[in-house]
Design a protein that fits this description.
This protein is of the alpha+beta class and 59 residues long. It has two helices and three strands. A three-stranded antiparallel sheet has the order 2-1-3, with no helix packed on it. It has helices spanning 17-26, 41-49, and strands at residues 3-8, 34-38, 54-58. α1 (17-26) packs across α2. It has a single domain, classed as Ribosomal protein L30/L7 (Ribosomal Protein L30, Chain: A, 2-Layer Sandwich), CATH 3.30.1390.
């Protein structure tokens, strides 16, 4: 399975609660923080929900 690097590029301030919870579930708490995950359907679905707040790079 491929790995992806997810980086938070925008703040979650003034965003809906479900988007804030999605960022927390991905392990992101601060701007410019990066986390590495497997590219599973669950993770890709969460990334799609907050794609305007994060950038994704395949490793």
């Amino acid at each position: 399975m491929t790995k992806i690097l997810i980086k938070q590029v925008k703040s979650s301030i003034r965003k809906p609660k479900n988007q804030k919870r999605t960022l927390e579930a991905l392990g992101l708490h601060k701007i410019n923080q990066e986390v590495e995950h497997e590219a599973t359907p669950n993770i890709l679905g969460m990334v799609e929900k907050v794609n305007h707040l994060v950038s994704v790079k395949e490793i």
